[in-house]
Every structure is written in C-alpha cells, then in structure tokens.
Design a protein that fits this description.
CATH class: Alpha Beta
Strand content: 15-25%
Number of domains: 1
CATH superfamily: Phosphoglycerate kinase, N-terminal domain
Strand order of the largest sheet: 3-2-1-7-8-9
Radius of gyration: 18 Å
Shape: globular
Helix content: 25-40%
C-alpha cells in the first residue's frame, strides 16, 4: 500500500532506525563491541560478517558458542551444537580470530546427574556433560572486554536463562552494562529472547535503547535493506 499512497514512518519506526543506525554506523574514533548469544549460528551468519566489518570485538556465548568451540575441536560433550554450521564457524574464526572472543569456561551438568552443576574450563568438558551457561572466568573476561569500549550491541542470551542458576552469565553481563554510565557506554539490545532475558535480569531499563523490532532487528544489523524502509525512502 505504501507504494501507491503517500506514506510516512511512525514515530516509533523513526526512533528504532535512529538508534540502530547509530549503533551500527562505523566511526573510527568510537570503539565498539557486540555481544551475541542464543542457540543458532546459522541464523546469524550474515549478522556476524556484517558486524565484523563494523565492530572491534564480538563476544559469543549461549549455545551458538558451542558450535564455535566445536570448530576449534573442543569437546562439548552432549551440548547443543549445529553440526551443519561448524564449517562456517571455522571460516569465521579463520578470518577474524583476533575479533572473536569465546568462552574459556562454562557451567555444565550431566545427563545422569542433572542437579550436579559445576564450572569447568572448556578443555575439560566430559562426554556426558551439557553446557548451560558461561563460567565465572568468562564473565570476568567479558567484563574486562566491555569496559574498553564506548558502544555495545547485544543480541541473544548467554545461557539457558529460563532456568536458574543458568541465567547467571546473562544477568552478570547485563549488570555490567547497567552499571556503566550512559556517558561512557552507548548500549543497544534487541531480539525476542534478548528482551526476555534482560527483563529476567532486572536490567532491561538500563540500556540506552531496546529494539522491539524482532526479526527486523536481525535483518537490519545483518546489513540488509528493510523493504518497508526502502519504499518509504523512495
């Protein structure tokens, strides 16, 4: 309909585009970092490649980190992994190993003893164990990384946040962002699971901007032109 009748973006769409353009615009004088989580690498391949060209550092957690660890030939036990995306993850690590930061330790449980929870370095994961969250060393490492940058983009939880205590990693990293002065860190987050995880962490209102764009948010940060925006621009 927008192709045939005079059309204008609503205030909310304008606000979304303003903040998403600001966070993804590459400015050499402003250092930037991205935090990516969730379960699927396959749905974020274009996002990762686009962000590699615009961001100085990318922290990866959640189940998608398992696929990257598998690409590095790290045993991940019975953890969720996208076998068909291991080759692509390996290629991303090959071209951008200096920009990608992966977990160095994780919170695991075994299928035989699900209530027996422990922290292990990634090199020590056993065949019967399942990764549920990033570990304390990784949290500290992510904290140190975030403290170096002026812009932060977040998409995807860093662990199985729906079940305690596997929300600790996401909660900790979101608290790092929330405790950093807006003058020192411009922070944007988006995606359905991301919003749920941040609400769970009680740090939802502490980000500079939270996108409610859902799938359109991922499309935008992957560098694609949104059809509705293209029509309105024309």
């Amino acid at each position: 309909m927008a192709e045939f009748l005079p059309s204008f973006p609503g205030h909310h769409l304008e606000y979304e585009l303003e903040h998403l353009s600001k966070i993804t615009k590459q400015i050499e004088s402003i250092s930037s970092i991205a935090v990516l989580g969730g379960s699927k690498v396959s749905s974020k391949i274009d996002v990762i490649y686009n962000l590699l060209n615009r961001f100085d550092r990318i922290l990866i957690g959640g189940a998608m980190a398992n696929t990257f660890l598998a690409a590095k030939r790290v045993s991940i036990g019975k953890s969720l992994v996208e076998i068909n995306s291991v080759k692509e993850a390996n290629e991303i690590l090959r071209v951008a190993t200096d920009k990608i930061v992966l977990p160095i330790d994780v919170i695991v449980s075994s299928d035989e003893e699900p209530n027996e929870i422990m922290s292990l370095d990634v090199e020590n994961i056993q065949k019967n164990q399942i990764i549920y969250d990033i570990g304390p060393k990784t949290r500290k490492n992510f904290f140190n990384e975030i403290s170096k940058y002026k812009k932060l983009l977040w998409n995807g939880p860093l662990g199985f946040f729906e079940k305690k205590p596997f929300d600790n990693g996401t909660n900790f990293v979101s608290s790092v962002v929330s405790k950093t002065s807006p003058k020192n860190l411009y922070s944007v987050a988006g995606g359905g699971d991301t919003i749920s995880a941040l609400k769970n962490s009680k740090n939802f209102d502490r980000f500079s901007f939270i996108s409610t764009g859902g799938g359109a948010f991922l499309e935008f940060i992957s560098g694609r032109t949104l059809p509705c925006v293209e029509i309105l621009n024309n």
